[in-house]
Design brief:
By secondary structure, this protein is mainly β. The strands form two sheets. It has a 19-stranded antiparallel sheet that branches. Strands 15-16 form a two-stranded antiparallel sheet.
Length: 297
C-alpha cells in the first residue's frame, strides 16, 4: 500500500534532484496535474458525444503544500516567497528576505511511494503564515507550475531539519507603538500569479501581476487597546516576532498597515473580541514587508 506516512518532499533550484536538494517536512499536499479533454460537442442527430471528435487539451499544475516549518526550512523557502535576494548579516547572524518584482521558480519533488512526481518551474502564488492559541506556526504554500513528470527514480537521500517549530506562544505583535495581546494571527503574501498557456499544452508564462500583503489578528477589545479600533487612514508600522530559543523570525511591516474599521460585537457572554484585517502598503521608498530570519540568536 502507498501510505501517506511514507511520503517525502524536496525542492531544488535546478534538476536533477540529488543529495544537495532541500527536504521539507510537510503536513499535507495536493499539488497536481489537472488535464482537460476538448470535445467539439456538435450537433449530429444524437445526444451522444463521439470519442473520435475529441483532443487532449491544456493541463495545469497547481496545489498547496501545508507545513509547520522548522527555522532551517524557512531559510530554504522565504526567498521563493518574497522574491528578493537575501542579505546575510544585517544584523549579524541573521538573513533579511526582501520583496522583489519577480518571483523565482523551484523544482518540486514529491514521493507518493508508488511513484515520484516532479513538478517543474513552480512559483508561490500565495503564502499564508498562521497560528493561534496552543498551535505551531503553519505555512501554506499555494503553488503554480508548468509540467508534471512521473518517474520511478529513487528519492535522493536527504537529511531533514531536526529543529523545534515556532509556536503561537512565541509571538509578539507590536502595533500602534505598543505590544498587543492577540488570540490568532494570519499573514498572507499574495503574488497574484497570472498564468498564460498561449499556443501550448502547458503553462508558457507564469508572471506575478500584483502583490497583496495582509495581516489579520483577533485581539481582546479592552480599554488599553482602544487605539486599535478605527485607526487613521495613514496606518502604522507594525511587527510580528516569533522567538524560539536562539531562533527568531521577524515580520516587519515597515510601510503602512491600514485597517478599515470593523466594530466589535457581543456574540455571547464571553470576552468581546476585536478582529483586525489590515492591508500592508508601501510608504515612500519603504517596502510594505520584509522578513528577517535569525538562525544564530
Amino acid at each position: 500500500m502507498s501510505m501517506g506516512s511514507q511520503g517525502r518532499l524536496a525542492i531544488d533550484t535546478v534538476l536533477p534532484f540529488d543529495g544537495s536538494s532541500l527536504p521539507l517536512e510537510f503536513d499535507t499536499e495536493n499539488l497536481a496535474k489537472t488535464g482537460t479533454i476538448i470535445d467539439t460537442a456538435g450537433i449530429r442527430g444524437t445526444r451522444s458525444h463521439q470519442q473520435e471528435r475529441t483532443r487532449t487539451g491544456n493541463y495545469s499544475v497547481a496545489g498547496t503544500i501545508e507545513m509547520f516549518p522548522a527555522p532551517a526550512e524557512l531559510n530554504n523557502v522565504l526567498e521563493w516567497i518574497m522574491g528578493g535576494a537575501p542579505t546575510v548579516g544585517t544584523p549579524v547572524g541573521s538573513t533579511t528576505f526582501p520583496l522583489a518584482e519577480t518571483i523565482p521558480t523551484r523544482e518540486v519533488l514529491i514521493d507518493r511511494v508508488a511513484r515520484r512526481f516532479e513538478y517543474a518551474a513552480c512559483k508561490v502564488n500565495r503564502a499564508t503564515f498562521s497560528s493561534r492559541e496552543g498551535e505551531a506556526l503553519k505555512l501554506a504554500l499555494d503553488l503554480v507550475g508548468t509540467t508534471e513528470l512521473v518517474t520511478a527514480t529513487a528519492f535522493p537521500t536527504l537529511t531533514y531539519a531536526l529543529e523545534a517549530p515556532f509556536v503561537f506562544m512565541d509571538a509578539v505583535l507590536t502595533l500602534q507603538s505598543a505590544t498587543r495581546n492577540m488570540k490568532d494571527v494570519t499573514i498572507i503574501i499574495d503574488n497574484v500569479l497570472d498564468v498564460a498557456f498561449n499556443n501550448s499544452t502547458t503553462a508558457s508564462t507564469i508572471v506575478a501581476s500584483d502583490r497583496i500583503i495582509s495581516l489579520s489578528c483577533l485581539n481582546p477589545f479592552v480599554a488599553a487597546d482602544i487605539a486599535l479600533y478605527d485607526q487613521a487612514l495613514a496606518g502604522a508600522t507594525a511587527s510580528v516576532i516569533f522567538t524560539n530559543g536562539n531562533f527568531k523570525l521577524t515580520f516587519t511591516f515597515g510601510g503602512r498597515l491600514q485597517f478599515p474599521a470593523e466594530s466589535p460585537a457581543v456574540a455571547g457572554k464571553g470576552e468581546i473580541p476585536l478582529r483586525l484585517n489590515g492591508i500592508a502598503r508601501k510608504n515612500g521608498t519603504t517596502d510594505e514587508l520584509s522578513i528577517v530570519l535569525d538562525l544564530t540568536g
